[in-house]
UniProtKB/TrEMBL annotation:
EC number(s) recorded for this UniProt protein: 2.5.1.145
Major location (coarse): membrane
Matching Pfam families: LGT (PF01790)
Protein role: Catalyzes the transfer of the diacylglyceryl group from phosphatidylglycerol to the sulfhydryl group of the N-terminal cysteine of a prolipoprotein, the first step in the formation of mature lipoproteins.
PROSITE patterns noted in UniProt: LGT
InterPro entries per the UniProt record, alphabetical: Lgt
Name by which UniProt lists this protein: Phosphatidylglycerol--prolipoprotein diacylglyceryl transferase
Membrane-protein topology: Multi-pass membrane protein
Amino acid sequence: MLIYPEIDPVALSLGPLKVHWYGLTYLTGIAVGWWLAARRSKLPWTPVSRDQVDDLIFYCALGIVLGGRVGYTLFYGGDRLLENPAWALRVWEGGMSFHGGFLGVLLAMYLFGRRHQIPFWRLMDFIAPFVPVGLGLGRIGNFIGQELWGRPSDVPWAMVFPADPLQLARHPSQLYQFALEGLLMFIILYWYSAKPRPTCAVSGLFSLSYGCVRFVSEFFREPDQHIGFQAFGWMTRGQMLSLPMILLGVYLIGIAYGRASAAQQQPGKKTAR
């Protein structure tokens, strides 16, 4: 069993103002995403120019924060939201949902694309490789904040989290998700998108890969106490929300390469990429 490295969740205190590591991981993820997008915007086939990157990241940040919070209150709030609707505004108490943030970014990219006359799916293909950076850093924030810990386990690297009232040795599932959703997905998507791909292919790979790694990692993560297990007595809310992403990913990859193949069979016609 490993000893949890007790880290103060507050990174910096300035009088009554407290800056938490969780918030800093979000800011760092957005900053790194901005840097990567600025670099990628210089490639000849990308739909976003360098001048548009700053505006793009602003839209993404709004979609992540607003969508993540709204999604959490709807997907995981349960009776708490019904009893006290004002709870949804208490962002300082924590609570963000990736699936809600994903929907928020979809809406933000739709609005950004309309404003700048950029096709929606080409825009999604552009930003998809950068998303795992924020996901991975967010999981580090979860680990430092001692939230979303894993299920009880006797593996040699299990940890006892000081905030756990039961004081059980658990999977450090936040670190599993950092490795899968962050490192692994970033390597795959950044490599795959390094050259032109059919429109929707990069977005499809992101949706498919996230749905798969999230579904697997949920087997090691303790379900939310007020929700517990749901479908079939073993499936969590996170797994249920990931299934549509897997199906969407398969669909997008299928139509991307289907259209590309059809275009290649028509002389003189280029793919949408």
